[in-house]
Amino acid sequence: MSNPKKAAPSTQPPEPPAFIVPRAWLITLTVLIVIPWLIAGTLYLWRGLDSAPAVLPADDPPSREAASGPWGVLEVSPIVISPPIELIDDDWARDADAGKYWFLPDTGLPVAEVFLSSTGLSREQVSRLLAASRPEPRINGIVIEPDPDLARSLAPDVRARLYIQLAKSPLNLDQVQAFRYHGESADAWLGPSLIAPATRRLVNPLTYRHGEHVYFADQALVRPQIADAGERRRLAKALLRQLTVRVRLSVPSLSEVPGLATYWGRGGRRTDIRPLLESIVGRGADRSLDIVHLLPAFARERLYRYPRLTAQDLDRPVLANCLWSALNFFNTIPDDRYLDVNVAVERLKQDYTLIENHYELGDIVALVDERGNIFHAVVYLADDLVFTKNGTSPVAPWVILPLDIVVDYYRPRSEKPQLIYHRRKDF
């Protein structure tokens, strides 16, 4: 792309550099390990918001009632959003070389043969791939240039096993940055009418499942086959559809208001939101409101929306990520000092304490992989719901999701991450 900071239709960043937790901390704290770090990489800083995204009916279960707690009675309704078409550049996935090669670092031909065979590829397919490989001293491994027809012919389960392993190397960008959708099928993901039937027939056979998400990583195969620029953008919009939830709080009586104001008014906002809670009582059958109105300004202004870059952002060497969002949750004006890894880590060390239970609005939840590296951070809201930005591009929105869906979204990074909860000491 001519402008490297234009919106790229990926909701999954390349694997960031790891912040290794000292072994002594792991031994001492057992469950409550570690200092969180700031995920480094190419990130985008919010500077203004676009118009509301398209909201489409969800293919997931109907509304449910959240577990009871100090947050009150919550009704959770799944919805699906996708970015405005204006945010999607026609040149997405134009770099054909991005998916042209499979990189196997620190791997020789004998190991590569064993690996490829283990994914379920036939002997003939393995032979064809090895014949299309060459040694690459710079990665101490080999590079494979798969035949496009062979890549298209992979069975979904074989594609899943192969691509999940390829995604463990940041060199395989298409697999690392694979589109993903929490749902049962590619048809549910792509929606009923966004793209042409011919485009759907190109994409569907190339999707695969991992956990509770459907994945697509073969944009390099599909894009050249779609001549119409508008259809390419509509495909990107369809692939960027993302599940989220709307949450409504019921206020049945005035006696509930003090407790609800205490819970939702953390950060010195209790007096501000009490009149709103009181206004809901006595409204007849609908004694509820969307919790977006109860969140701090930072979250309220971003929820269900997409970042929009400005000229000022193009000059920034480092731009915002999920932990920047988490640390600024209670800030009216975002603190850009958290763009600095060291400052962000020091803030968590000095101003937060680690907790094990009785979580409250605004607690930060860090996802830690099996090696003790934190790779994502979210903000706890209530019950199992968190405020999160999954991915770092301008086409990755801020949303509310159940925490287990966020964990599954990042399954390629960690199958069983540890969840570490942090609370500000001044709350």
Q: What is the β-strand count?
A: 17
Portion of residues in beta strands equals 15-25%
Mean pLDDT: 84
Task: Report the end-to-end length measured between terminal Cα atoms.
Answer: 45 Å
Question: In terms of topology, how is this protein built?
Answer:
Elements (H helix, E strand, L loop, with lengths): L22 H7 L24 E4 L6 E2 L7 E10 L19 E3 L4 H10 L4 H9 L1 E4 L4 E4 L3 H6 L2 H11 L6 H4 L2 E4 L3 H5 L6 H7 L3 E4 L2 E4 L2 H4 L6 H11 L2 E9 L6 H8 L5 H11 L7 E3 L6 H6 L19 H6 L13 H11 E4 L8 E5 L5 E9 L2 E5 L8 E5 H7 L8 E7 L3
Antiparallel strand pairs: 1-3, 2-3, 3-10, 4-6, 5-6, 7-9, 8-9, 10-11, 12-17, 13-14, 13-17, 14-15, 15-16
Helix pairs in contact: 2-3, 11-12
Question: Summed up, what is this model?
Answer:
With 427 residues, the protein is an alpha+beta fold.
Walkthrough of the structure:
The protein has 427 residues and is α+β, with helices and mostly antiparallel strands. Helices cover 29% and strands 20% of the residues. It is built from 16 helices and 17 strands. The strands form 4 sheets. The chain has a 6-stranded antiparallel beta sheet with strand order 12-17-13-14-15-16. Strands 1, 2, 3, 10 and 11 form a 5-stranded antiparallel beta sheet that branches. A 3-stranded antiparallel beta sheet has the order 4-6-5. Helix 2 packs antiparallel against helix 3. The radius of gyration is 23 Å and the shape is globular.
